[in-house]
Structures are given as C-alpha cells and as structure tokens.
Specification:
Length: 487
C-alpha cells in the first residue's frame, strides 16, 4: 500500500492505494484562505500546510492500513524561505502571486531572454520561484540575508516529515533555476541572480527514494519511523502520472484551481516565445510541455463566493446546464490573477462581455465554464503550431467531475475526451511514484498500466457553436489589453 499526499492551494489531501490502484482511504483538510494584501499578491502560511498534512495523514491512518512508502505532490512555484535552523522566515509567495514583473524584467535583461529560455526552457514569469526570491531581495533585504534554504510547498511538508531538504526534477523545473534539458541546477542562472547554490536542495527523480520519516515526523502523524519517502512531483507532474500521460500524443486537460493542458514529450520541446512551459516529467528520462490558465476552478469559486454566497457548485452548474451552448453570446475572460498561456501577462484582468438584460445567473456560470475551456483551448492552438501531437485527451481535476464541464471541453476542443474509472488526481500519481520507488513496479509506465483504466469517452456535440464562440473569445484579450494600457 502506498500513500500520496497532495499539498494543494485550497487544502491537503492524503490518498492510500493498493497495488491494483484501488483507493483504500482518502481524506482532505482545508487550508486557510489565500492572503492578498494588495491586488495580485497571494501568500499562504507554510505552517498551515503542515497542520493540514498532519490532519489528513492521521485521518487516513485511522483506516488501519499501513503504507509501505509515500510521496508528496502539491501546488508548484511557491517560495518557502527558511533560515539556517529550518525556521520559516515569512509567509510563502505562492504560484498565483503576480507582484514580481519588475524582477522578471530585471532577470531577462541580466541574462537575455533567448539565453534564459536556452538554459531553463522557460522565460521569466511572476509565477516562478526565482522571481519571488528576487522580490524579497529587493523589498525585504534584511530577511533575504537570513535565507539558508529555499523549498516549494510540498517539499516543506516533506522537510517537516523527514528533516531532509530535497526537491524532484519536475518541481525544480518550475523554479526557473533548473537546467531542464540536462536535469540539474543551473549555476549560470543562480549566479546571475545572486542566489547561493547552497540554498538549493538536492535533486531527485520523481520515484527516487530521497528521505525517510523521522522520529519527529512519526510522532506528529502516526507514520512509521524510517518509512521510505519518494521525491514525488509537483501537482501537474504527479497528476499526469495519475492519468497515464507518459507518451507523446497523450494529453491531459485538468481543471483545478488553475487549469492545465499537459502533453508528454520524449525530448525537451522549447517554445521560442516562451508561451508554453517545458519541464522535466515526473518519470525519469522524459519531459513535458504544458499551458496554464491561472484562474480555472478559481473563477467559479470567486463567482460563487462573491455573487452567489450560500449556493453550491451543483446548484450553479444545474442552472448553467439549462442555458444554451455559447451562453447566448456572453463571454468570460478568466484573468483574475493575470494570465500565463498564451499571453504571459500578469496585468491581464478578467471580464464578462456581451451582457444583456436577458442573461440569468445560469448564463454567467456557463460563460465562466466555457471561458475556462476557451483559455485551455489556447494551449491546443499552440500545440498545433509547434507540431506537438494530440491523439487522446484525458480530463482531470475537479472539472472532470462535472458532466457539463466534461461536455463543454469536448465541444471546445472539438475532440473526444476520456474519463478515467478512478481519477484521484495528483495524490494518486504521487502514490504510484512511491510504489515505483520501492520496486512494486519496475517503472512508472508499468505502474500506470497496472492501475489506470478508461471509464468512458465523451464525443463533441456542439463543436460548431463553440468554434464560433472561441473565435469571438480570441478577440477579447486584445481589447482588454488596449483598455488597460490606455488607462
């Protein structure tokens, strides 16, 4: 039995599976809300992740099952800064924090955009860990001088469990400090940015055993002391493992807090314009490309909390299902936290357009769901431009549980989409990495083949309507950009 722990944005989830992939126990604990002191800022307290992890792990262990190994996954890009004693120096700047554009500009000028993409396969973006470190350097210099260790969110929880400073290749790809092509830290980038190599943890491949549960970790959670801990992966890498996305042509479209379209590649495919992320995969020897929209499920949650407090998601999506495809001309641009793919614009702002007096709450909800799918379709457009094959699309994330969002995605992508028999997200993929790490399967591909099965396929039903709506949607961002630039 293998344990996967997902330190997400909204909460931490623990999933225990057996060698057939059957889920034996699962529990999720919510995090405190994201703190946003200024527009575009987003911070969380690492101690809150640790609290939630303890709670979820303890709840799963109450099932009576004992894991043979575990691995962690979680939200990527967050910047956790520790002093020499391993104490947290400040709240973590998380993935959706957009304050660091000046630092991105400085780094791009310092290294050169083309050279930076050559070294890391990615441009400087506010989401990445390095740019957050540079913001602290510029605005909190006294604190910056105290930094001794830099981790990402799930790696901090592993540190609390084991006492080890470690990071996997896939997670490290999202720091902007990794030489993604050669799967090693980039000394050139670190030196140019003024980051000490001693701050960076040791690197491991996803299924590689990197630590063991310490006495303190055991006492805090009930896990057995010396239990093997695999390196795991960021949520997108582990989620792809959990969906069997390991070979070229296999693509996943996941709608969680953010939205991601993810394709496995046999080599590091680089977009010279930096619109797609190119990362090491969670499995050794392969890579992946992905496009990201920052506000996916987050957009629906924002609407519910702001305009429909007390309503459930089921109630809202039921209203949306009663409205026609295309939402009678209502469009949603989902840029609540700026946007990554394809615009690379932290200043992008969300908007509804085309509102009329006949639009109901259901229209607005459907427009949000369609707008998120349109934003993800931008990545498929880039895949076609870069000759990245798409032979099958599997749906994941919370959006995969919504029948309406399933059909909307098939219609917008104009491609059949697959649903898995048991889509348990990134925590499931982390558990597979843990099992592979101790030899339950010879490799990650075998682990996936042994445990992942397709339940059904959804075919497009309204592709023509969605194609026309997508063409109109593509004109919204340039208009919003022109408005914001003229302000």
């Amino acid at each position: 039995m293998f344990l996967g722990i997902d330190v997400g944005t909204g909460g931490t989830r623990a999933v225990l599976i057996d060698r057939t992939g059957k889920v034996l126990a699962s529990h999720a604990t919510e995090h405190a809300s994201i703190h946003s002191a200024h527009p575009g800022w987003a911070e969380q307290d690492p101690e809150d992740w640790w609290r939630a992890a303890q709670s979820s792990i303890a709840a799963v262990l109450k099932s009576g099952h004992k894991p043979e190994a575990l691995a962690l996954t979680g939200q990527m890009h967050g910047c956790v800064m520790l002093d020499a004693d391993g104490k947290v120096l400040r709240p973590a700047l998380i993935w959706c924090d957009q304050r660091t554009q000046p630092q991105c500009d400085w780094l791009t000028e310092k290294i050169g955009r083309a050279r930076l993409i050559e070294l890391t396969c990615n441009p400087a973006l506010p989401n990445f860990t390095l740019t957050k470190l540079l913001w602290v350097r510029d605005h909190e210099p006294a604190l910056f001088k105290k930094i001794a260790h830099v981790l990402c969110p799930k790696d901090y929880v592993r540190y609390r469990l084991t006492g080890e400073y470690a990071m996997d290749m896939q997670e490290a790809s999202g720091t902007l400090l990794l030489d993604v092509t050669h799967r090693r830290w980039s000394t050139e980038v670190a030196e140019a940015a003024g980051i000490l190599m001693s701050w960076l943890p040791k690197l491991y491949e996803g299924p590689e055993i990197c630590a063991r549960i310490s006495a303190m970790g055991s006492a805090a959670t009930g896990l057995a002391q010396n239990l093997s801990v695999a390196a795991g992966a960021g949520d997108q890498g582990a989620g792809a493992v959990g969906m069997g996305i390991l070979a070229p042509g296999a693509v996943s479209a996941a709608i969680g807090t953010s939205g991601v379209v993810f394709a496995a590649t046999s080599t590091p495919t680089k977009d010279p314009l930096g619109r797609l992320h190119t990362f090491c995969h969670a499995a050794p020897g392969i890579w992946h490309v992905m496009g990201v929209t920052n506000g996916a499920g987050l957009a629906l949650r924002y609407f519910r909390d702001t305009f429909a407090p007390g309503s459930t998601y089921d109630e809202l999506t039921t209203l949306a299902a009663l409205t026609p495809p295309g939402a009678d001309g209502l469009l949603w641009a989902p840029y609540l936290f700026g946007e990554r793919t394809p615009h690379l614009d932290p200043e992008a702002r969300a908007a509804f357009t085309g509102i009329t007096a006949s639009h109901t709450r259901g229209h607005f909800v459907r427009a949000i769901m369609e707008g998120v799918a349109f934003s993800l379709a931008d990545t498929f457009t880039l895949f076609a431009e870069l000759n990245i094959p798409v032979t099958k699309i599997r749906l994941g994330g919370g959006g995969a549980s919504s029948p309406l969002w399933q059909q909307i995605q098939a219609d917008v992508y104009d491609h059949s989409v697959e649903l898995l028999a048991a889509e348990e997200g990134a925590a499931f993929g982390a558990a597979l990495l843990a099992g592979t790490g101790i030899g339950a399967w010879p490799d990650v591909a075998t682990a996936c083949a042994s445990t992942i099965h397709t339940a059904r396929t959804i075919v497009p039903a309204n592709a023509a309507v969605m194609r026309a709506a997508y063409h109109r949607y593509r004109r919204v961002y340039p208009a919003l950009r022109a408005i914001s630039k003229s302000a």
